[in-house]
Amino acid sequence: MSVVRIFVAIVVLSYVAYCLVKQQVWIRKEFAWKTREEYPKVFLMSIIGGTLIGVLMLWNLVR
User: Are 6 and 36 in contact (CB under 8 A)?
Assistant: First the structure.
């Protein structure tokens, strides 16, 4: 089970890193990548939420 958690955490943090590098976010409503300027709130929520989820998943494994 911990292997699955590590894999999911790495996938989530990889998505966050990709969004930061490309300055884009995936919008499910339009099924496309959109820029940070087009959806600033969604971009920030994705970065903050994804980082928190990934770090907390890894943190729970370490404890």
Answer: no
Contact 1, 8 (CB under 8 A): no
Phi, psi of 8 (to 5 degrees): -65, -40
What are phi and psi for residue 31, nearest 5 degrees? 55, 50
pTM metric for this prediction: 0.90
Cα 8 from Cα 2, distance rounded (Å): 10
pLDDT tens by residue, 12-59: 999 999 999 999 999 999 999 999 999 999 999 999 999 999 999 999
Residues 6+ apart with CB under 8 A from 47: 16, 19, 20
- 8-state DSSP, 39: S
